Amino acid sequence: MTRRKLIGLGTAAAAGLVLPDALLTTGEALAKPAGATPGIGYFGRFGVTEKLIRDTLSAAMSRGGDFADIFFQHRVANSFGLEDGAVNRAFSAVQLGVGVRVVKGDQTGYGFTEDLSPASLKKAAETAAAIAEGPAQPLAKKFRVESKGASRYPVKVRWDEIAPAKKLPFLTGLNERVFSADSRVKKVNVYFADESSVVLIADSTGRMVEDFQPMTSLGLSCVAEANGKKEQNGYNVASRGDLAYYSQERLDRIVREAVSRTMILFDAEPAPAGEMPVVLGAGASGILLHEAIGHGMEADFNRKNVSIYSDKIGKPVAKPFVNIVDEGTLEGARGALNVDDEGNPVGKTMLVEKGVLTTYLHDTISAKHYKVKPTGNGRRESYQHTPMPRMRATYMLPGPHKKDEIIASVKKGLFCTNFSNGQVQIGAGDFTFYVKNGFLIEDGKLTKPIKDVNIIGNGPKVLEMIDMVADDLVIDEGGWTCGKDGQSVPVSQGIPTVRVSSITVGGRGAKG
Amino acid sequence: MSKNPLLETAQNAIKIALAKGAKEAAARAYTVRDVEVRWRDGKVEKVQEATTKGLGLQLYADGRYSSVTTSDLRPEAVEKFIADSLAMTKVLTVDPFRSLPDPELYKGQAAIDLLLEDPKYADITAPARRQITRDLEAAARNVPGSSAILSVTTSFNDTLAESVRVHSNGFTGSRRDTSFWAGTEVSVKDSDGRRPEDYSFAGSRFFSSLPAITATGAEASRRALSRLGAKKGETAVLTMAVESRSAGRLMSTLLGPLSGASIQQKRSFLEGKTGTQIGSPLLTISDDPLIPKGFGSRLFDGEGLAAKVLPVFDQGVLKNYFIDTYYGKKLKAAPTTGGVSNLSWKLGTKGQEELLLDMKDGILVTGFLGGNSNGTTGDFSLGVQGFRVRGGAIGEPVSEMNISGNHLEFWKRLAAVGNDPYPYSTLRTPTLVFEGVQFAGL
To answer: Which H or E element spans position A174?
Structure first.
């Protein structure tokens, strides 16, 4: 039983393995919607009809559930890996399946299957139905197909229409450039991944919505050797875009960042140990928000009364210039969505507004519990899982300070720029994030580079101690994956440069 | 007798792959039946039940390699999937190190019954599952101090997994196993508004050998209640005891750097270190795939190699890496096995209580939070919580602290190993005591 809440980067440098598990193309071509049945479109090719959906939902509601939904998914994920100078491995994963959920109050029944036959769907529905005990409940008379509005996925040419060979130059090109950038480079690993997932969600209220969800990521890791020492680091990017996402500027940045983040480690020292001021650089430092407040604001923990934020809505939790947002509408972001995995529209949710705790992140069950509209945070890893409140892109709005002013304000402390992973305890509020690169701040100036240090704090305490926020918000482009209750979902995060007046740095050098 | 459908699926996939131009192929077909009941504060929260299935393939074509999986097992879909996979494989660069394992290594499987399947698996009923989750909650609430409990969530989960592996160069293997897990999570209210949580769980291959359910439920409450009033301690260098359950987190940070891939890709601080002293003489560990009823036990590994005991550390000296066929060829080394099965530790003679008496002063770590370990350099930094130990007795709870160090120094300071291997993890760590550990806190 794991109730672990954590986040990590695809190329979590320390974990060693570069390739993600989900990989490459094949299977059913993810091409044109069949278009035969309005609303069903794509899944018509697998024999899915409105009658099949209606029969399944009827079976799901046959024992008195309040609500039922059905979630079809076809996901094709592909990737190529480069090692020792050659693109010499390809990976592909095809997932086709359907999950049926029945909700009774806050109780859930769930069944799923990879076999889309009527008999198999009926069995899954009956499994889910057993959560309730009562007379059958009716379905809506007609399905209404929900319009999703403008797509947030900037894809002109779909991944399944791109020949595999077109992707290879990205890998070989990056490899050559990293080796020529610095003679200390000894090993380079590159992966290129793309994914196309189509989902169809229909529920007992008559809602029906289909969404095509693309994803791509490119990551580079390098090992360098000098004077008998080895160092390793990397950089990766991810988006719901298409091939055009990989602009020359972005590819240049991948090379530059991977090399510089690795080479600086030769000069880096262990960080100090103990409490001190910590300045977090704009961008990936949004990991602080994900762990310190984001998870604790997921409404399932709050309706169960087990989050440290359970009784704090409407209360001041931070300085008045602190505004924290979770939104699914950032075009192309890894955490962007047209609809959530319950079919709810996705918008922008204020977690903290002018320092006051404002809104939890809801799925359908928690929204009903709190008698509010769902916020579009009901997400799931796949058809094998039930949805729950999850973050999308979590970030802090710009504040009144300047980056230089913030660094200059610290006599002795740390400036953190790159991160690999974090974790939180929902109820106690303690959280951590792991710093791959940073600098000491001495007398208001960045001095020695530091490396590999975990930082640990308590969510509400640290929010109160964010006492400076700059105007330089950056949404990080890295391939972040959030884990909760055994389910992984893609997310984004961002933040302007901020100062935390005091937090524990888990280093081993002398205290600053 | 009808043919095993999984064997048929795997053999058919191999046949298609070879017919479409693969030189060699490996296929694994599987089904997993999994039922989970979750119970919270007096009623069922969730029931999930499903049988999932899938097919995984490793394709070797024209000297090129790919690894693919699908859950779409319709015959026409499998055919197209393999054709598309081979088309993709052909755009790759030739990799001379890729091939199926040497068939000689398939030979010599241990002739023992690992006792991985409970013949009575199918007897468990839905009401019985619910009763277990209900009993766990009752036990969790029946402890001193239970008025501070905010919420209790319990779960029971049973799984039957079946798989068949077929290689085109002469390997066929199958396995069936069952497992049963019971878990409890408890949140308690602290006076300062914090809601500390902790959990307990127990698992077994056989339903009848699950430990007394009530013991695991009450353990979760005791652990959560013991967190009340936890405070950050001083930054200091101290002796650290790590309870057996939590010590797996420390051990897990060594596994990446022990892999053939990490060694060959220069991402391991253990590169070139076989035969050298890495840990204190108390560190003796082997990988033991043949432990009856073990969660990691197996007769053959993920590549079909006959499973054998593999010494990893002997009195602190590094003996072997985990090397699969591919990285074995790249490293010009004999393959051992590509991954950990069960770890078997040379145990000490004392349990945690006695070890704390010997330790006298320090911190007992009962949980890790986040952090990471740099496998290339051996530097690590991990969040911890636990208890201050004074005069050999457990004192006040501490939280929001961190430990850091470098593995090449850290394991040499291993000062004691307990007699209490943790049974619910494949790493089977006993209580471990380390001297001179850097703690960060206040």
So the answer is: helix A168-181
